[in-house]
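Honest question from a wet-lab person: if I give you the sequences of every part of a complex, can you actually get the arrangement of the whole thing, not just the pieces? Trying it with mine:
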Amino acid sequence: MSGYVDVSRVLAARRGPPAALLGMAILIASEASLFAAMIGTYLYLRFETPVWPPRGVPEPEWLVPTILVAVLALTSIPVQLAWRSVRAGRVARARLLLLGALVVQAGYFLWAVHDFADQIRRTPITENAYTSIYYTLLGADHAHVFVGLLFSVWLLLKLMRGLTLYRANVTQAITWYWHFVNLLTIVVLATILSARG
Amino acid sequence: MSLRTLGMLQWVGLLLGAVVWAAQHVVGSGITQADCGVGGAGWGISNDLWQATLTACAAGLVVLAGAAAVTVFARTRDAGFGDEPAEEAGDVRRARLHFFAAASIAANTIFLMIILLDGVASLYQLGCRQS
Amino acid sequence: MAVVAPPSREAAARVIRLEQVWKSRPGLLGWLTTTDHKRIGLLYFWTTLVSFAAGGAEALIMRTQLERPNNDVVSPSTYDQLFSMHGITMIFFFIIPMTTGAFGNYLLPLMIGARDMAFPRMNALSFWIFLASGIFIYTSLFMGSAPDAGWFNYVPLANATYNPGPAIDFYCLGIVFNGIASTLTAGQFIVTILTCRAPGMSLNRMPLFCYAFLAASFGLLFALPVLSADTIFLFLDRNVGTHFFDVAHGGSALLWQHLFWFFGHPEVYILIVPAFGIATEIIPAFTQRRMTAFPLVAIAELLVVFIGFGVWAHHMFATGIPTVTMIFFAAASAMVVIPSTIQVFAWCWTMVMGGGRFRTPLLFIAGFVFMFVTGGLTGIMFVAIPFDQQVTDTYFIVAHFHYIIFGAAVFPIFGGMYYWFPKVTGKLYFERPGQISFWVLFVGTNLLFFPMHVVGLLGMPRRVYTYSDGLGWAAYNLAETIGGFITAAGIVLLLGNLFVSYFRGAAAGPDPWHGPTLEWSTSSPPPEYNFAVVPKVSSAYANWDHADREEDRRRLESGVLVLDEGHLQPAVTPVDGDLSEVVEMPHGSPWPIVLALALSLVFAMLVLEKYGAAAIGGILCIAALAGWHWHEPEEATG
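Yes, you can. This is the full assembly:
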């Protein structure tokens, strides 16, 4: 028996979410809680500090990060379309969409790492509580983008070998992950930019 | 009322109260942290105004959630809860609706009590006095 | 399944095929690569008994030290390590893994009519990570450098200035390490409960035990990341030089407490809610009566954890935060008692109306109700902020939480051990010694913990390694120490009874109690595939629906929902339990233990401050994950 069942037919007949998708929802819930703790920490420290950012620490840049985060968020579109292609059984189209999204996401990540290294060289994390939470929050967000890149690379490698029900489930799960990371990045950016003015 | 409408009302009854209380709790205690913290003291937050508004809105929404729950409960009275013997089991979906409606009535009552209790008490308290 | 008349040849052939398909690898290799939820449950059970012994030894040494004034059995610094490790061990390495890991793993799939958890390999991973994290943190003890700032590890006592050395780094990393295992378990339970129930088991037909575990799982899922954030911040402060908790550089010592207790309070509900689930199954079994107020008990399980997320700052009433802030937490704390009270009334009403057979399991539940109510009454007293400020950090608090934890978590665990012993082993335990073990434990624990209320109100602070003569505390402490040793004797008696019963007990058969839930409809112990036929479910007390169990036998004859072509089980819709698809499950894999070893390398290198090696360990983890997901279940059958 071939593992290559008629994926579209099985997906259409399915009445509830697959375990893989709920598992991804669980991962998202857990990571969202982690970031809620970090954002709560950011706000708590802010409420307890008279001047924010403290003197000697530059205000966060807004223009370039906002544009790039918007571009990252837009990759949710090709990723979602990739899932819809998989659901319709059109693997080649899905691979192309994922690859396109991956290029943009990787580009964002490279800029993010470069910018992070640049900032931390000028103002180290050990400066004060503001820099401690700033770099930790930002660094954690970048790390989650990196994990998303690993997921996408893995999925692309798998989809090179064809479509199975397992890979279809994984595509859907990874789509949700990217929507989460993109939304998370917007929230983290908003939190960090709240220090301006 | 169609089963679909009852289903939606059931979820409203079950989840709205919980979400509203959680929001009122986080925002309400957060406002006090901001108002009483060194960093936030200069922002001109009126704690009383915020708490009164939050309490009123939250209480209103929880009452709505409770009303949704009561509606579903009343309209599914013919179904059981799901714990009766198999031979007495009614329609699966109606029993599920009835079960969650009963649960939601209890939950929303408790949420309403918490909201009223902390809302009224925080209005009674003086500024940022430490205990 | 409970077979009354001999099955036909076709039915027997189907069973044989299931046996062959689901057979484990033999020997040690079989255990190391197991993904069977029952075997994993047993692994958790034995490991947590070892933790229990360690935590108990720590307790007895402390009680010996406190038995008289000005004692010198242990030094102050050793005492600090003892109370810290006692708390950490009992909470993270005994109660959570015993309830969720042992009871939850073994029983949940059986109760919902499934053949295994949703993610069997991840289930094994949880166990190996748990075991590794226990070894990790106890390494610190053997190095003479165990955590010593208490189980809640407040800064600044726990920071690098006041606590140089590796002890607190072991704490921070060990907590995160252990937290990974519990998070995986929590996610496992939620997805399993939502997708692996037998078709027909809509959420309102799910046993109350499952509601309890669903509640505890949601609690773990949302609380653990906050603790992880907290400990990561502390690790960074200690090792990288950040200033999260450093007031001189804009940080806040109270931040540690907020984040810790945001986890810490849900944690205590996570400790007791599974025990509520155990009680809620034992009572119907021994009263032969359905639980009163079924939907209210179900929602109460979920509500107590949900509202419990909103009460954390009641652990901080003595820290000087403004009253307007404390109000929110006092209000929520006052109301969180209501769901628990609903359950207490339901349990008592069911027991009274049903006229229970007070066999050993139900005796433990009766003891549990008594101790939970006692602990709960002192708990509600703390809602009064002025009173709380008087008794904070005294033995009154120690009394309260031990009544709750020992009474409300451990007693049902003991009762559950007796109740499900026949199912797991196929043997009956000896009833007389069982009842004696209950009474010894009941007397012992009350003698151990009740005087703590008094001595706390007399002013004895917690965490003191000794005390002066002439304060009026000595007699109470002596009584508590005696109680401690009586408790230990009771535990030895209990475990001894079960041990001897394993070898000498009478055959139990599938259903000695006429139990209400599906685990009693299959053999004792259950076969690897749990059920020969996916059970038909029409109520929350499926084993009492004899017509449905008859229908199962007819299905075995006709081959409906036997699913013997592979490691198959049905997946259902989350709310109404309608059949969605049939899923191929993984079965036996080396990857969980491999990944756990790679992860252990990461944590070991981190605590040794070899960050480069830790990064290499991280890469090994990614490689292990790649290996894990290389072969897909479908391809394996192709």
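Two things worth pointing out. Chain A has a mean pLDDT of 95. Helices of chain A lie at 7-13, 19-47, 63-74, 76-87, 91-122, 129-160, 165-193.
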